[in-house]
## 1
Amino acid sequence: MPGVRFSGVESSVSTGLRIVSNDSAKILASVPASRKAEATQLLAQLKGALQDFSVVVANKDKQEVPIQQQACLALVGALEESMVDGFPFAVPAPYDTLPALKGRAEVEMTLQLKQRAGSSKSGVTGVVTMILDGYNAPVSAGVFTDLVQRGFYDGMEVQRADGFVMQSGDPDGKAVGFVEGGVERKVPLEIMVQGDKVPLYGDTLEDVRRFKEQPALPFNAFGTLALAREEFDNNSASSQFFLLLKESELTPSGTNILDGRYGVFGYVVEGQDLLRDAKVGDLIKSIKVTRGAENLVNGFKKAGPTPAPAPETTVGALSEVPSA
C-alpha cells in the first residue's frame, strides 16, 4: 500500500488500544442497559483486533494495514450503534416521506469482472461488503437500501471506473435515475456536519459558508460511498452512486474536492481489491441487504427473509462527479 506511514499508524493504534483498555467503563456508561452485554463483547473484540493490528505494525506489513483498519472500524461502528437508544432525530419535511434508513445496514455487492488478457483477476466474481450509515445520512442510505431491495441494480454494468471513482446506477444510459409513476425520484443533498445533531439538507457547506467545517462522514477512505448528482443542482441525485477509489493519504479531510459538496452515506469494509480491478462494462450481478433491512422505513419491503448471498469468491460520461 503506497503512502502508508507506519509512525502515524503505530500512534493511532496505540492510542486506540489505550482507550479501549483504560476507559472501557466510560465507554460502557454511554450504552443503554439493554445493550450492555453486546457492547462489552464488542469492546473485547475491538481490543483483540487492535492487539492484532499492533503486530501488523511491528511487522511493517503494508498489505495488512487497510484490512486490519477496516476490521477495527467495523467494530467501532457496531459499538457506536450499541450506544444509540432509538433514532436520534426526525427527518424534516418535505424529505420525511422518502425512504429512510433509521440505523445501519450491511449490503453485499456481487461484482463480476470481465475476461481480460494478462490480468490475474480476469473473469473473477467476488463480493464487496459495504456498511450504510443511516445515523448520519438516513435519506441517502434509505433511498439506496430501497433500490437494493427492489433489485434495481441487479444486472447493471459498471458505468465509470477511471481510477478516481467507480460509478453505476444509470439504468438506461440517459442519466435518468429511478422512475416511479412516470416521475424520477429526486434525493436531496444530505450532509451531517461534525457537532450537528441533524443533517444539512439541500445545501453544500460552501453554500452556507461552513466550508471550513468537517462532515461526519468525509471522503477520506478508499471505498467511500455517495450518491452522484448534477453538478449545479444539489437536489438532483436519484439512483446513481459512486465509490471513491483514492487512498486516504491522497484525499485528507477538508482538502479534497468532494467533502461538503457530496454526501457520504456508506463505506466499503471488505472487497477493496475487487474495486481496484473493476472496469467499465464489468457486471454488478446483484446487491443484497444482509443485515439491517428492518431499519428501512417508507421503503420497499421484500416478502420473506433476505436471501443468503451467492456462494462466489455497474457513470457513463457523466459530469456528476469531478475528475481527479
## 2
Amino acid sequence: MEKKYQHLFFDLDRTLWDFEANSLITLQEIFINRGLEELGIPNFNTFLDYYKTYNHHLWDLYKLGKIEKDHLSVERFHGSLLHFHVNDRHLASIIADDYITISPTKTKLFPDTKMVLKKLSERYSLHIITNGFNEVQFIKLKNSGLDSFFQEVITSEMIGAQKPNPKIFEYALQQAHAQANESVMIGDDQDGDIIGAQNAGIEQVFVNYSSQKLLCQPTWHIKSLKELLQIF
C-alpha cells in the first residue's frame, strides 16, 4: 500500500497476546494450588464468573484514576474471595502475587501473530502501547517471543495515564520519534485504542475478534491479524 505510514502502534492484551486464554489457565492453576474449593468456593467456574465481573469493575475505576494499581492487584482477589465468605486478605495478597508471577509465563497468541509482525516489521517501525502493568507486560513480550519485533514499549505506568487519555498517545509518539499523521494504532478496545487514537489524531485499525457492535467508525475494521497485510 502506497501510504504515508511509518509507525504502527499495537495494543498487547487481547490484540496479540490472548489474555482470556492465558488468564484462564493461570486462574485455574491458582484455584487448585491454593485449595480454594476446600475453603468453600463451589467450583472454579463459579469463582471465575464472579472474578471476571469484579475485576472488570475495578479496572474501570483504575482507568478513571479512582483506585491505585496496588489496590486493584489485591482487591480483585480479596473481593472475589469475600463474595464466597472467605475473608482472608493475606490469602488474597498471596494469590495476587501468584497471578503476577504466573500469567506472563503463558504464551498463547492470536493466530498468525508472529508471521504478521515479522512481515510488517520489514516495512514499518512497530511499537506497543498498553494499559497493563510494567512488571508483567515486558515478561509477556519476552516469553512469547514478541519483544524483538518492537522498538518502543509504552505502558500506562510510564506516563501515569491510561488509554484513552491522549497523554499516553502523545508520550508514545515522542518516544518513537513519530508524528500522528504517519502513525496507526491497532487494537481490540473501541474506547481505549480506537477512540483514544482518534482523539490523538492517529488513524486506527479495530481488531474485532468477537464481532462486537461498532460504537465508533475506525479507519479500518478487521477480524483477524492476517488482514493487516492487506492494509499495509
## 3
Amino acid sequence: MKLTASGGTDGATMVLFWPANLPDDADQLLRDDPIALFEKLDGEGKLIYFPCEGDGGYTLSLYLHEDVPAELAAFCREHRKYPHLLVSGEGYFGGGECVFKRDAGFIEKYKHMAGKVTVPDETYDAVVHSTDVPRSFYASWLRKHAGPSAKRAGDAYGVMWGFIVGGVLATLFGLFLMPWKFWFLFAGGTAALVAATVALSRSAAYKKVVAAREEFARAFPTYVVRLK
C-alpha cells in the first residue's frame, strides 16, 4: 500500500509524528526546546525527524509492506533505519511547528502545513530515504508530461516573477532617486508585467504545467519511508 502526504515548514524542520506517541508534557516541551524533543523521540522510534534544507513545501511517500518502485528507488538515498518504529493512532507529516499533543488548532488553521498519514497501529521496521532527482530529469519529465509549450509557459512565469520583484524594488527606491517621468515609466512597466503574469497564470498551458508539477511531486517525493 502506498500513502502520500505533503506539508510545509517555516522553521526548516519536517517530521512524521503521532500525537499519541508524545509524552504528556509535550506541549510544554515543544515551547521550551522542540528540537531536543524531536531528537529524543526520533531516537526512541516514536517519530521521524527528516533532514531539511530550509523553509518551504515537502512531499512524502510511504510504502507499507511494499517495495519502492524501481524508477523512484533509483533516486533514493538512505537516510536512516528504524528497527522499531511505533505507530499509534493518526499520524501527520508536516513542519516542526505543527507538532502537538492535544491541540491541533495550528494544523486546522493552516491545513497546507501538514498532511494526515493513516497507518495501522503496529511496531514497524522502517527505512527512510531522501531523494536526489537531477534537474535535467525533472525538466525532461515536465516536457514529456505537460508538453513543450506548457513547460515554456511555466519557465516564463518564473522569470516574469523575478522581473516583477526587481521592478517593485526599483520602483520603491526610484521614488527618491529617479526623475518623475522615468519613475512613472518604470511603475507602469511593472504594473503591465504583473497583469501579463496574472493572465499567464490563468492560461491552459500554465495550468497544465502546474498539474504536471503536482503529479511529479507525488511520483518523486522529497522523502520515502518503507515500512515492514
## 4
Amino acid sequence: MHEELIWADYFAAAVPAGAIFDLTVRELRGIASVSDSSQQNLNPGAELCLIGLVAYFEAFCKNHFASMVNICPQLVENLHVANRDVSVKAVDLLNLEAPLSASLGFLIVDRFDFGTPKSVNSLYMDLIRLTPFSKEEAEMYGKILDDRNLLVHHGGIFTPRYAKERFIAREVERRRLFMDSLLVTKDQFVAASAFVLDISRKMRVSTQLALRNLLRERGQEIPEELGKAVDALAWKDDLEETA
C-alpha cells in the first residue's frame, strides 16, 4: 500500500502543516510591517494579522494531527481507547482518491476542537501521549485567544468578561467598559507571532520524535516514502524573528 504513495500524500494540500504555517506567519508579518504602528490609534492591519495568526495556528494543530494519523493509522486505537469518536461515514470514503491509509486522519479530525490550549493538549495526549502546551504557555496563548475573541466578537471594544480576566478591578477601568477598544500594535503582533511560531515548532519536533519512537517500538518497517513523511513532520523554514 505504502509503495503507491509519495511522502506528500500524507499531508493536507500535499504540504506539511509546519511548512504552511511558517509561510503564513511570514506573510502576516509582511502585512503587519506596513501597518500603522501608532500607539494611540487603532491598527486594523495588526488586528487582522492577530486574528489570522490564531486561525492559521488552529489549522496547523488540526492538519498536523491528521497527518500523524495518516502516517500511522494505528494511532486511531489510542483515540478509541480514550473514548474519542473515530467513526467515519461510508459515503465520505467514496469521495477519497488517495488510499484510505493516507487520508483517514482528514476524515477523523473534523469532529475535534483544536481551538484552545486545553483541547489541543487533551487531543495530543490521547493521540501520542504528549502535551504541546506547558501551563505557562497555555496561559500566554489564552491571552492571545482572549484578544482574538474580543476583536472577532466585539470589534475590540472592552466587555465585562474581558475586563474581569484582564483588568485590575478598579473603578477607573470599569468606566472603560463598552467605551475603549483594544489596541494591537505591529510590535505586539510580531511578539505574538514569535511565541505561537515557537509553540508550533516545538510541537513538530516532539511529535515527530514520539511517532518515530512508536514505530520503532512496534518493530514496524518504515518504507522510504513513509520515512520521508515522518521527517517532514518537523519541517522548519528559516524565518526572521521580526517583520
